[in-house]
Each structure stands twice: as structure tokens, then as C-alpha cells.
């Protein structure tokens, strides 16, 4: 029987991999312009990290983790998101005792056991940033401005940025009571999950994916009305900073984000055109996280973007158009193949993207091959060329041909590629 990729995973083959390179380049460049540097953490961690750092009542931890015991019976989990690992690394390397804020970005595969559909996979990729060690509302604004800048650089204009404040544990405590009293009379209409969790964590009901739950709790009290003065002021400052920097957003009372460690600012970006899974990214402030993971009491703010969903949103042709290589070495007579290989090596050592045929194609077949690779120039090597120590360079667009000596070849090609 043929073996196929596991459900919810997929291969990235060329030319699609070039789109990934393009996306990765924009993500890196933009993060670096904003002063973030890359962190790479392991793909699996101790299960406890996610239980503590993401929260046991969340869908991610309660239903979606790829957890396994290794040969020493340790419980390990393929990372479902990046923030908890960053917090762990921050603590483990005492990175918080250096220059603050610590500004990191990461990029890589994440794993969640969910029902696959367009835009939802079991292995998917996230790009994220985290800024630890600042409580300033301008820090929140910075990460949001960074996210919006990424979308602009990718040419994605039709997005919606939703923004809310989920307050601090103090104002949330008061709000919880109000929300529980609102939900209690209609609790029988909720999905089984929400019936089980509404008393412990009523905010999760607002975050439930089940439409019936939303219908049942219609008219519920909103968190914004319960914010304490400090949280209200923080939120107002974030909003002002966004407006001052021409970032438009929609205040969204329904946005609560399911993760336990979020405090204050929460945001989500949707691109309505990409289908049912329209959320391309989300994030917020998480002042309780580092402490919950065993570190000092310092705040953090960040976001994660779904890279597959960004690619779904990227219009055709947005990525850089380039041939696979720039130059093709065509050998007109097999006996000169060794010279062809030497020329090819010289070109490559000079940093020129070049290739040749390795399947014994005829001269005509080699030129077709060159066309398919999208080269700008072909170098033709036949009897005349070898006897007289030159090569014929053909411009594949203008079809003009030049006779070029071996010594001048690299310079000639470099000049021609630039022109
Ligand atoms: P979250 O950590 O759940 O806020 O996810 C952040 C972003 O990652 C989402 O907005 C999606 O773009 C992306 N994402 C989350 N889960 C998946 C998945 N199963 N497949 C593809 N992308 C995902």
C-alpha cells in the first residue's frame, strides 16, 4: 500500500516553497526593522509547560495537543504555539536580567489535533513576536503596528483588526460574577463543553466556537464595562497610539481570546476573503505568563500569525518573479561535457545561479530545458567554441548571440544579468 502524509499535514514542493521563502523574508525583515531578533526553541517541550503556560481549560490543552511518552516515560508535547516556549527560554536563560524589553521573533511548525479543512492543519506554521519586560501601552501599540506593517508589506489591504481589553485579574474577577449570573438561567442551552466550564471559566463561553452558545447568552454584560480605572486607561492609551499611527481597528466586545494568561490588550486580525478560517493572527498582553511559568513578575505582549493563512491571502504573483536559475550551460557535443562542467562550476563559484542537463538531452532538448528553467542566458559549447577557446552566449529573451572568451565570461554574464 502506498504511504501518504498523515491527515492534516502536507508537503511543500517547489514552486510553492519559493512563496514560503518570500513570506519568510518579509516576516524576518519587518521584525528586524522593529528591533526583534530570532529565537529558536525545540519543537517538543515538557507537557506541563503548555498546561501551565497555555491553560488547562483551553481547547488547545484539553483537546488538541500531540502528547506522547518518550522511552523514559516522560510526557512530552509537540508545541501547539510559541509563547509558552519563549517564556520558558526567557526564564531558563535569565534573559530578563539583561536589557529590557527582550524582543524576540520566532517562526516554525506548530501542532494541534483539530479537524483539518482549508486553512486548518494539524501541522501548521506560525510567525510570532514576543516583547517581555515592559508594561507600557506603547509596547502593545508597537507589536500591533508591526503586525499591520507585515500585512502592508505583503500587499494585504483587506484585513480587519479587532481590538479589546480583557482587563486584569482584579477587574475580571468582578466581571466573572456578573457573567456567571447571566449564563446560569440559560445554561441548559449551552454545548456540553460550556456547561462544564461556565462556572469555572465563564469567559471561555464567549470564546466558544459553537453558535448555539452565542445565541443562548445574547445580551451578556461586556467586559469593557467592568474594567478598572487602570485597565481602562491602558486601553485608551493603546487606542490613541494606534490612531496616532494611522492603524485602524474595530473595538470588539466579543473578542476575549481563550488563553488564560492574557491581560489587558487582546487583538485578532481577519482577512474575510480566505474562507471560514479567516483569522490570520492574534495576540495580546500576557502579564501573568512569565510568573505562572516560574519566572519573575514581568509583563509581556506579542502575537502569532498563521503562515498558511497569509499565503492563502497572498494574491497570485505577489511574490518575486524569478527563473529557477539565470544561466544554462548547453553542451552541443557530449565529448565537451567536462569543459561544460568546469564552466558551470566557475559560474557557481562566482555566485551566478546556473545549471546544466544531466540526462543526455540533444542540443535542442537542452535549449527547451533552459527555457523551462526560465534562464536569462544560455552558454553554448560546441566544436567551434572549444577549438577557438570561446563560448557562445545566447540572450534567451532578445535571442542575440555573443562570442565571449573564457576569461571575460564571468564579468560578461554578471553585467548582462544586471542589465
Ligand atoms: P492562535 O495561537 O490560536 O491565536 O493562532 C494564531 C494564528 O495561527 C491563527 O490566527 C491562525 O492564523 C493560525 N492557526 C491556528 N491554528 C491553526 C491551524 N490548526 N492550522 C492553520 N493555522 C492555524
UniProtKB/TrEMBL annotation:
The keyword Protein biosynthesis applies. It catalyses: tRNA(His) + L-histidine + ATP = L-histidyl-tRNA(His) + AMP + diphosphate + H(+). Keywords: Aminoacyl-tRNA synthetase, ATP-binding, Cytoplasm, Ligase, Nucleotide-binding, Protein biosynthesis. It comes from the Bacteria. GO terms for molecular function: ATP binding; catalytic activity, acting on a protein; histidine-tRNA ligase activity; transferase activity. InterPro entries: aa-tRNA-synth_II, aa-tRNA-synth_II/BPL/LPL, Anticodon-bd, Anticodon-bd_dom_sf, His-tRNA-ligase, HisRS-like_core, HisRS/HisZ, HisRS_anticodon. The keyword tRNA-binding does not apply. PROSITE patterns: AA_TRNA_LIGASE_II. It is found in: Cytoplasm. Its main location: cytoplasm. GO terms for biological process: histidyl-tRNA aminoacylation. One of its GO terms (cellular component) is cytoplasm. Gene3D superfamilies: Anticodon-binding domain (3.40.50.800), Bira Bifunctional Protein, Domain 2 (3.30.930.10). L-histidine binds at residues 81-83, 112, 126, 130, 257, 261-262. Its EC number is 6.1.1.21. Residues 1-316 form the Aminoacyl-transfer RNA synthetases class-II family profile domain. Belongs to the class-II aminoacyl-tRNA synthetase family. Homodimer. This is Histidine--tRNA ligase. It comes from Thermosyntropha lipolytica DSM 11003. The gene is hisS.
Amino acid at each position: 500500500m502506498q504511504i501518504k502524509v498523515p491527515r492534516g499535514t502536507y508537503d511543500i514542493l517547489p514552486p510553492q516553497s519559493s512563496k514560503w521563502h518570500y513570506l519568510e523574508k518579509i516576516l524576518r525583515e519587518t521584525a528586524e526593522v522593529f528591533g526583534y531578533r530570532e529565537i529558536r526553541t525545540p519543537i517538543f517541550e515538557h507537557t506541563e509547560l503548555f498546561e501551565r503556560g497555555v491553560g488547562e481549560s483551553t481547547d488547545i490543552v484539553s483537546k488538541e495537543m500531540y502528547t506522547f511518552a518518550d522511552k523514559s516515560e516522560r510526557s512530552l508535547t509537540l508545541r501547539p504555539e510559541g509563547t509558552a516556549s519563549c517564556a520558558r527560554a526567557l526564564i531558563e536563560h535569565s534573559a530578563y536580567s539583561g536589557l529590557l524589553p527582550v524582543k524576540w521573533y520566532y517562526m516554525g511548525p506548530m501542532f494541534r489535533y483539530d479537524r483539518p479543512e482549508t486553512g486548518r492543519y494539524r501541522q501548521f506554521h506560525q510567525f510570532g513576536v514576543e516583547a517581555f519586560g515592559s508594561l507600557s501601552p506603547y509596547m502593545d501599540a508597537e507589536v500591533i503596528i508591526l503586525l499591520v506593517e507585515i500585512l502592508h508589506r505583503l500587499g494585504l489591504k483587506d484585513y480587519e483588526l479587532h481590538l479589546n481589553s480583557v482587563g486584569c485579574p482584579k477587574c475580571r474577577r468582578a466581571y466573572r460574577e456578573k457573567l456567571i449570573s447571566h449564563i446560569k438561567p440559560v445554561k441548559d442551552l449551552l454545548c456540553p463543553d460550556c456547561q462544564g466550564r461556565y462556572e469555572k471559566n465563564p469567559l471561555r463561553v464567549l470564546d466558544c466556537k459553537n453558535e448555539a452558545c452565542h445565541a443562548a447568552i445574547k445580551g451578556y454584560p461586556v467586559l469593557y464595562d467592568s474594567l478598572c480605572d487602570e485597565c481602562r486607561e491602558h486601553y485608551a492609551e493603546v487606542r490613541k497610539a494606534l490612531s496616532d499611527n494611522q492603524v485602524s481597528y474595530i473595538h470588539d466586545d466579543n473578542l476575549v481570546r481563550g488563553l488564560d494568561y492574557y491581560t489587558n490588550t487582546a487583538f485578532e486580525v481577519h482577512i474575510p476573503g480566505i474562507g471560514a478560517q479567516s483569522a490570520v493572527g492574534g495576540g495580546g498582553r500576557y502579564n501573568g505568563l512569565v510568573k505562572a511559568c516560574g519566572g519573575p513578575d514581568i509583563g509581556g505582549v506579542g502575537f502569532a500569525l498563521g503562515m498558511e493563512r497569509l499565503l492563502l491571502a497572498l494574491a497570485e504573483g505577489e511574490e518575486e518573479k524569478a527563473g529557477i536559475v539565470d544561466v544554462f550551460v548547453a553542451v552541443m557535443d557530449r565529448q565537451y561535457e567536462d569543459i561544460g562542467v568546469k564552466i558551470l562550476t566557475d559560474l557557481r563559484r562566482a555566485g551566478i545561479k546556473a545549471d546544466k542537463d544531466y540526462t543526455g538531452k540533444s542540443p535542442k532538448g537542452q535549449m527547451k530545458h533552459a527555457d523551462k528553467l526560465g534562464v536569462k542566458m544560455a552558454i553554448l559549447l560546441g566544436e567551434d567554441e572549444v577549438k577557438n577557446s570561446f563560448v557562445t552566449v545566447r540572450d534567451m529573451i532578445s535571442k542575440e548571440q555573443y562570442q565571449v572568451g573564457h576569461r571575460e565570461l564571468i564579468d560578461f554574464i554578471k553585467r548582462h544579468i544586471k542589465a
